[in-house]
Amino acid sequence: MTRKTFYDETHTVFGHHENKLFQWIFSIDHKRIAFLYMIVMFAFFVVALGVALSMRLELFFPGEQLLTPDQFNQAFTLHGVIMVFLFIIPGIPAIFGNFLLPLLIGAKDVSFPRLNLFSWWLFLAGAIIAIVSLFVGDGFADTGWTFYAPYSVNTNTNVLMALTAAYILGMASILTGLNFVVTIHRLRAPGMDFFKMPLFVWGLYSTAWIQVLATPVVGITLILVIIEKTLGIGIFDPSKGGDPILYEHLFWIYSHPAVYLMILPAFGVVSEIVPTFCRRTIFGYRAIAISSAMISIIGYLVWGHHLFSSGMSEWAKVVFSFLTFFVSIPTGIKFFDWIATMYKGSIVMATPMLWVVGTIVTFAIGGLTGVVLATLGITIHLHDTYYVVAHFHYAMLGGVIFMMFAAMHYWFPKFFGKMYNETKAKFAFWTIFIGFNLLWFPMFIAGALGMPRRYFDYLPEFTIYHQISGVGAFVIIFGMLYMGYNLYKAISNGEPCGRNPWNATTLEWQIDSPPLLENFVNTPYIDFEPYDYKDGKPVHDLYDEIHKGR
Amino acid sequence: MLFRTLLTIFLVTTTLFSKEIGIYEQQEVAIDLDLKFTNEYNQTKTLREYMNDKPTILTINYYNCPTLCSPLLYEVADVVQRVGLEPGKDFNVLTLSIEKNDTFKHAKTTKDKIFKTIKTPFKVNAWNFLSTQSQEDIDNITDSVGFKYERRVKDGVVDYLHPAAIIVLTPTGKVSRYLNGIKYLPFDLKLAILEASDEKTRPTIANTLLYCFAYDAESKTYIFKAEKIVGGIIFFIVLSFFIYLIRTGRRSDIAELQKKKEEEKKKNNDSTK
Predict the structure, then answer these.
(1) Given CB atoms, is B100 within the 8 Å cutoff of chain A?
(2) N or C: which end of chain A has fewer CB within 10 A?
(3) Do the Cβ atoms of B207 and A220 come within 8 Å?
(4) Which residues from chain A sit within 8 angstroms of residue B220, using beta carbons?
(5) Chains A, B: CB pairs < 8 Å
(6) Is B17 touching A (CB cutoff 8 A)?
(7) In the predicted model, is pLDDT for residue B207 greater than 80?
(8) Residues contacting B223, CB < 8 A, separation 6+
């Protein structure tokens, strides 16, 4: 008997559809919705990569080559808006969270499947508005992804549309967060209390709260800018009696927690991959779980470090500086726990593990340079330089997106039931890793020497750094394309790999790959820790219990 | 009568509003280099002679300015020392007074005050402080570069509302770049000077709003504690939501299953005992 997977049958919001496309875009199955997100997000990712490459080409030589100064402003805004709002923020939760959350906690779907589909449609609407604003009027906004007032109020480019897009994307994000919080509280398998949940679920849980709590603030802020722009009421523009610093506060009250919103699920991915490839239970389970919650709480209280050079009382600066140092403590706890798990383990260096180890290096650089930037004296010198650009790309690309790649390789067999070519995947990793460091490391030096960010031109003495970066950009993009090609080939040509090729312990590996429509035939009873290994083999196998009576 | 008064007030305000002070950036316009101005040593030369075929930083001030001009000029004095280029060789600086009653004596006093702060070698003629008795010539320059200001006389004291910015000119007198505000990064200025020597013109990106207001700005303070209101409401809603989630626990069918399993487990434990 051939098994029917979620690829063969689905529930849609309007009942049954004959049309295959409708079966996808109206599906309320969390796994299909994850794929919908994946398709849209990676399409935008490719666009943003292209824009980034055009900026690197412009900067390859001093002076004007490819882009005019105005186009350059629009290019970095487009790159930032797409990468932040359309890729990294929804990133891991929308793709891997949607696909895996119900599987990891033994549920048949999320709590509100229709709301889940609605979130994707909102996401799509926001994305379309952002794209439309490229082609009408004066083109895409040229404010940078932060939309700082008063410039965003005064510029003639399509800031209104970009703000509307960001607002709608924010709504999608809130609804997803709400859905996840309720799902985790209400739909955990019987017996699974909070400290028996896999750590990726803890990451998603902390993230979901940030989405619910912080996103409304930025939503309202964006509306205030829209009101100011259309009705001329002075809220942020000082020439109308407004306060531009207020904008910066409101914006960063959301956007700094958003940074943790990006990284926490990525940490969750690491906590899944490390025990699997070390074949042992994770060191300090509770510490990692609680540190996720700690990061999301402290992460709320550090936004002021974005305003160190924009005018704030000295006391506020000191407090924000120290709080920023504090947030590195729970992050450090996680890092030491992962390393302690690996210590004296017989590590299997498969591609996902390779990505994790690589990311520990790059994210450590990203995180530690963040501590440098949180230091009051030094930040004045480094503010708005390439040092900051390098720092957040080490944290965002070298942390979040690299972990997304790790997750893609780790759960690929679960998504498709097939295995990719391991040698090619490792080659892609090394290409990306080397290209990444070539691309961003020189920027630390250029930044420390005074190269400001967001400039389309530079002094001749910075040429060498820009050219090394430019070469790195080509290497990393080649690596990414090669990785994408390898995975794409594996969907059709990969070797079938069975349900648990990694010998992993968590629930998603105890069901068939790809999963059934409603995941579990029988809801399992979970009264054990998530990462139990004995002699390099998972202790619990619930396959028969879950599939009994099929 | 009331209607008339209101109409007059309306018309007066709109006229004032339309003459808004500020920098209106002009691209590809050149100032008239044949205009003659007097420098601080009472020599009268054309702008072409002052600029001497070099990129030039132009600042527009007046010498009795009580507020904005001094910090601006001190900042220029500071930044030109850190820019890594040689004044007089790579670029020149010109300061022009918008007050036609300013003389070379006023210019000399201001220059001496500013030059006291300069610690590096600086050719005296690399920075000239200009004045003229011709309002027409002053307007000619300020109009070409888009520098809109307003003269006010209060209690017999002449005062100007004017924007704060420096303007970098190419050797042929074209506006190359505006640097707004009263703080300039050496990097920005160096780039502007290098661009100007290549005869390139660019629009400004950052546009800090800063005006020389002679009146009290405090009365215009506008306080809106949006963050407190928004934060408070959201926090309350989320807290009640969290408490609700904790109190209700799992969905009823899963909760039942949990109960059943726990009972089974208990029974097993009892039977093994």
Answers:
(1) no
(2) N
(3) no
(4) 241
(5) 92
(6) no
(7) no
(8) none
Helix (H) or strand (E) holding B128: strand B127-130
- Confidence at residue A262, expressed as pLDDT on a 0 to 100 scale: 92
Strands B56-61, B92-97: pairing is: parallel
Residues in chain A within 8 Å Cβ distance of B190: 459
Residues of chain A with pLDDT under 70: 1-2
Min distance B32 CA to chain A CA atoms (Å): 27
Q: Check CB contact under 8 Å for A217 and B205.
A: no
Q: Are A162 and A102 in contact (CB under 8 A)?
A: no
Per the CB < 8 A criterion, the answer to whether B118 and B79 are in contact is no
Q: How confident is the model at residue B1 (pLDDT cuts 50, 70, 90)?
A: low
- In this prediction the pTM is 0.83
Q: Do A212 and B245 touch (CB under 8 A)?
A: no
Q: Residue B197: its pLDDT value, please?
A: 83
CA distances from A499 to A131, A411, A515, A538, A543 (A): 40, 11, 9, 13, 10
Q: How confident is the model at residue B206 (pLDDT cuts 50, 70, 90)?
A: very low
The three-class DSSP label of residue A494 is coil
A385: closest chain B residue by CA: B187
Burial of A226 per CB tally in 10 Å (0-12, 13-18, 19+): middle
Q: Please give the Cα distance from B182 to B70 (Å, whole number).
A: 10
Give B66 to chain A, closest Cα distance, Å. Answer: 22
Instruction: Provide the pLDDT for residue B201.
Output: 58
Q: Whole-number mean pLDDT of chain A?
A: 92
Backbone angles phi, psi at A163, to 5 degrees: -65, -45
Q: What's the N-to-C CA distance of chain B in angstroms?
A: 103
Placement of tokens 């000619």 in the chain: B140
Q: Would you state the pLDDT for residue B124?
A: 86
Identify the closest residue of chain B to A63 by CA–CA distance.
B195
**What pLDDT digit, counting tens, does each position of B63-90 carry?**
888 778 888 999 999 999 988 888 988 8
- Six token digits for residue A367: 């995180």
Angle in degrees, 0-180, between the axes of helices A244-278 and B226-248, rounded to the nearest 10: 30
Sorted by sequence, the CB contacts under 8 Å of residue A138 that are 6+ apart come out as: A156, A157, A158
Which of B90, B188, B205 to mutate: most A Cβ within 10 Å? B205
In this prediction, what percent of chain A has a pLDDT beyond 90?
Answer: 76
What's residue B5's pLDDT? 66
A232 in contact with chain B, both atoms CB, cutoff 8 A: no
